[in-house]
Amino acid sequence: MARQQQNTVDYFPFLCKEGEAMFYIENKYGNDGYATWIKILRQLAVTNYHYLNLSEYKSRMFLSSKCKINENLLIEIITDLCNIGEFNKELWEQNKIVF
Cα(66)–Cα(78) distance, rounded to whole angstroms? Predict the structure, then answer.
């Protein structure tokens, strides 16, 4: 019997060498920025097709709670990550989708 196609991942590599983007986010937001970015990556990894639709209040509240920060800070961090090219800026600005 064929195995069902999986659209999530069980793990992703975590590189020990940080780049400029990680340095910037951690420097600007402290541990909140660092932890939020990692938790977003983890949530993307276990979500079908690896995108987060945060257009609904409930989805934003879940993710901000998971990251242990308020909604405004979550949006600010994601916006910065989009502006530095880590997430798709157009999808975020138009649809509040993290990809």
Answer: 14
